Structure formats: structure tokens, C-alpha cells
Amino acid sequence: MTDGPSYKERKVITIGVVSELTGLTERQIRYYEERKLIFPERSPKGNRKYSFADVEQLIEIANKREEGVQTFEIRQEMLKSKRAEDRKFRKELLRGEINARFGIQKD
Amino acid sequence: MTDGPSYKERKVITIGVVSELTGLTERQIRYYEERKLIFPERSPKGNRKYSFADVEQLIEIANKREEGVQTFEIRQEMLKSKRAEDRKFRKELLRGEINARFGIQKD
DNA sequence: CGTGTAAGGAATTCTGACACG
DNA sequence: CGTGTAAGGAATTCTGACACG
């Protein structure tokens, strides 16, 4: 019935709204993009668009920054956990393929 | 872990994005508000903000309009189904209260 | 009734740069 | 390094109105 998880990922929020939602200045938000911590899409005319997932990511970044963590380190951590997620995903994908071929027999 | 259903209801999308998402013109979107078919919030400076739920509502409105249904009739239908939902909600609420008092005994 | 459009103004967003530290 | 700010321009949004039908 609903479109499910897509709401969280759809990039539809403008930078001004993101600023309100996160408490960060637009300057900060753009800077974190420059440091590759966040990846907004662009509208046809070049305006940044963010998702709710991006907003949450920015809130985490803000927390880290308050603890004195530098953007470089935050990026390292993000890449690390992304690799872990990728491994997990590939593992599940593989399990699915094995099941499809050798698991439940359909014919 | 996630914030759950709130993504769908949060009013964070500007009218330009809603226009892209629905294929409606801004004029149309504002007119449907005037006809009380849709209820955006306003930012501090007066800009309209819509939710994903609003976007879906607008898509339904657009479909109805294509079928030649007038805004007045669409509004009637909306009010009708809203009343039905309210009845259902009150019913469930009542059931919950009854269970809380006479159902599962906690002491 | 439903939608297009031109009008004028106000708010938004963008980029590149200088500043401080 | 991380963030503020002034700068100038382009795109966005708003309202109220006239138009057509």
C-alpha cells in the first residue's frame, strides 16, 4: 500500500529546511558536502536536495563535531561502516542465490 | 532505530519539488489548497511545506480531476473517508481502554 | 470552475573569496 | 581546519488580479 522505505531516501528537501531540521548553518552543510560527508542531489537548476537519511546523517555529524572529531576522521568512520555494510549485503545476496538454486525446489 | 512513520507525514517539501513530483503546476497545487483539498504548513517566512502524504494525496486528486471530478466532489469524498477513519480510530481506542481496565490483569 | 499568465517584491540558493585562527 | 560574512546574480515563492470559458 505505502511506498515503504523510499520516503527516507528520496532527495526532496532543500538546504534551508535541512538547516532548520538539523540546527546547522547552510555554510556548515555545504562544507560537509565539500568534505564528502554528505551527498545531496541537484535539481535541474542546481539546487541541493537532501533526504531524511541525509538529515539524520548530518545530525550524527553535528554530534561528532561537538565532540571535537574532525571531518576527516568522521569520513574514515563512515567509510569503515560502509564497507562493513557492503560485506553484510554481499553475504545475504549470496545466501539468497544459493537458496534460489539449491534450496527450496520449485519444480 | 528509525523514526518510523514520521517521514511520510513531516512537512518538509517545497512547492517546486511537489510540482516535479506530481506533475501539477504550482498554480494547480495552490488552487487545491484554496479549495481545501490539501493543507500544507508554512515556514516562518510563509513558504508552503508539504509531506510525502500530501504528495500522494495530490496525485490522487490529479487522477480524479482527469476523470472530470470537480474539486467540490473530491472534497466530499475526502471528508467521507476521513469520517470513516475517525470512527475506526475511536473504536480501536475504546477497545484498548477496555483491555487496559478489564483485559489482561497486571496486578 | 479550473487554470494560465504577467507583475512586483521578498526570500532562497549558488559560487568564489576573504577573514580568522 | 571549520565557519562566518559580504557580494552579485539567478531561481523560487508569494499574493492579488485579469483572462477565458
Layout of strands and helices, then pairs:
Two copies of one chain form a homodimer.
Chain A: H1 6-9, H2 15-22, H3 26-34, E1 41-42, E2 48-49, H4 52-66, H5 71-102
Antiparallel strand pairs in A: 1-2
The structure holds a DNA duplex (21 and 21 nucleotides).
How would you sum up this structure, described in words?
2 copies of one chain form a homodimer. By secondary structure, chain A is mainly alpha-helical. Chain A has one domain: Orthogonal Bundle (Multidrug-efflux Transporter Regulator, Chain: A, Domain 2). Chain A has 5 helices and 2 strands; from the N terminus they run H-H-H-E-E-H-H. In chain A, strands 1-2 form a two-stranded antiparallel ribbon. In chain A, strand 1 and strand 2 form a beta hairpin. The longest helix of chain A has 32 residues, at 71-102. Chain A is extended. The model of chain A has no long low-confidence stretch (mean pLDDT 92). The A-B interface holds A 2-3, 7-8, 10, 12-14, 16-17, 20-21, 43, 49, 52 and B 2-3, 7-8, 10, 12-14, 16-17, 20-21, 43, 49, 52. The structure holds a DNA duplex (21 and 21 nucleotides).
